Amino acid sequence: MSPLRLRLASGLLAGALLAAAGRAQTTETGFMVPDKETQDPPSAARLASIEAEAAATGWAGVVLPLRSAAVRAYGRDRFAAADAWFHAYRWAALFAEPEDRFISDWVGAIVANHLNYEGVAGRYSPTSRPIGINMSPELQAWVLSNEAFSEEFFANIKTVDHLPNVLAILEGLHRRGAENFQRYASLALAIALVYDVKPPPYWPHFQVSPEMLPRRLVNPAETFERLVGEDKLGRTYHRLTRLRAEELKFVVDSAAPPSELAWSESNVPYPLDQFEQAYSMIRYRMDRANDYSKMTWSSTPYTLQAIKASGGICVDQAYFATEAGKARGVPTLFFSGSGQDARHAWFGFLDGQHTWRLDAGRYAEQRLVTGNALDPQTWLPMSDHDLEFLSERFRALPTFMLSRVNEEFASDFMAAGDPRAAARAARAAVNYERRNLDGWETLLEADAALGLGAAQREGVMREAALAFTPKYPDLVVSYVNRVCASLRARGETSLANFEEQGLGERLKGDRADLAITQAASILSRSIATQSIPDQVATYNAILVQLGHGAGTMFFDQIVAAFAEHLSMANLKPDARAAVERARSALDVQPGTALAMDVDKLLAKLQD
């Protein structure tokens, strides 16, 4: 199961479902939804009755009747109606969720995803009150009646989202003006999903001290009102009402305060079709690039004005351009990556044709093999397929709506203990849209619960890998690796090794980064299970297969990692020999940043 998918199994809705089940056995209210009403989405009168019942007895009392209505609509293939009833059910379950139960699950997700950094880690003292109290009855009524917002909300939330804070932020923005909130609801949602927890110390990048750039987000209302005001005046490069929350979260995640953003609007002159030139506005400082001690900005406050005045290195250029884009309502991404001879930073932005350009400032001659960007909603690295999915916008297609509805019910059926129904719904989901990753995951989960054999589940994994071939190689790698793990678990070690090696060969060309990651996994397994001589043999084989002409990423993940492992095993001479073999295989050129990394590692390995 993907750790970030907000599944009923996470406890958020399952807890409310169980609580509601207990209540339903004793309640005398008799609240129910007649069969004839499930042919269509809930009417305004029905929604009003739901709200009245919740006000009188609590949201938990309407959870099961709403779920029943949704399941009945789904069973009749009334997908639009089923989706609307399902969202009403999910809102009711969310509003009924006790704060202490939610926080317990949320803390588990934060720890599992290594997000318990300072500002998030600590003691929490939640109450047993339902988290729906963070949203007024007026706003509850609006979200229940607004199917577009409901779809967007539930399509975007993750297990690491602090939903009590999300609801409270939405409530605060709504309270400041219902008209603006309703018109800019996707913007409000993006802000709530990004601002619900404090940002991490590694955002937006490591190469500036916390004293020079406090890692803070401004008040949510200030961001909302600034962007709404700019959009109404026509000063944003994108009409913000035409962007979805999944795009707008890359607008609202600004590390620069509003005063700097306002300055950039007057001082960054490039229109959207030329916006990549914002990167080269910053004079490149070779003196800093060639001196490790100067690579971290620490002399003056890290402002857009200071960067423009004094120049900087690639991280400063990328930061300047991304912040200037956000000031203009342009979704932007800060990328860092490993090249042939050094590390580099560049940026991406959503252009006027609504296409993501992900290579502004990414120089072809540096032969960059990978790029990393943070998702400001989760503060986790974005995967390759995350970026591709964002670019393709296929989740706005009608066929994906049908796929999504089926996956929602598949997940619900799994939580309710009906894996057979879950498997049918999940299969329908991936048949409608092969790129529905959650659908594949639910199908595998349901098949396991049904007791299908390993070989049958491997067949589904192979089918999923084929569905994501060739456009999403990171997902292909993930599913093939799971096939290999399953093969090893049932004693088919030779076949697993053969498939793994073949995958590495296929990745050597255009996706050397994934080939390196795959090799690092093989080396890690060797370290965990084999003798030192066999480990060295595995390392040498990887050098032969992938090392020739490789660059910084290979050095970091393979060479440095293995050398440090040997050093920890009190085998420093062997570690130095491994690094020297890599220097030759990688053809490290003197005077490059990679050469400095090699020399630095060798110095560290001296007795």
Strand line-up across the major sheet: 1-2-3
Per DSSP, the total helix count is: 29
Q: Give the fraction of residues assigned to helices.
A: 55-70%
Overall residue-averaged pLDDT value = 89
Structural class: mainly alpha
Number of strands: 5
Whole-number tally of structural domains: 5
Return Rg in Å: 26 Å
Question: How would the global form be characterised?
Answer: globular
- Which spans have pLDDT < 50 for at least 5 consecutive residues? 8-13, 18-28, 364-369
Distance between the termini: 45 Å
What percent of residues are in strands? under 5%
Largest sheet: 3 strands, antiparallel
What is the fold's blueprint, element by element?
Layout: H1 14-24, H2 44-57, H3 60-75, H4 79-96, H5 99-112, H6 137-145, H7 147-156, H8 163-175, H9 178-183, H10 185-195, H11 220-232, H12 245-252, H13 258-267, H14 277-280, H15 286-289, H16 304-310, H17 314-327, E1 332-338, E2 343-350, E3 356-360, E4 374-375, E5 380-381, H18 384-392, H19 398-415, H20 419-432, H21 437-449, H22 454-467, H23 473-489, H24 493-507, H25 512-529, H26 532-547, H27 552-568, H28 572-586, H29 593-604
Antiparallel strand pairs: 1-2, 2-3, 4-5
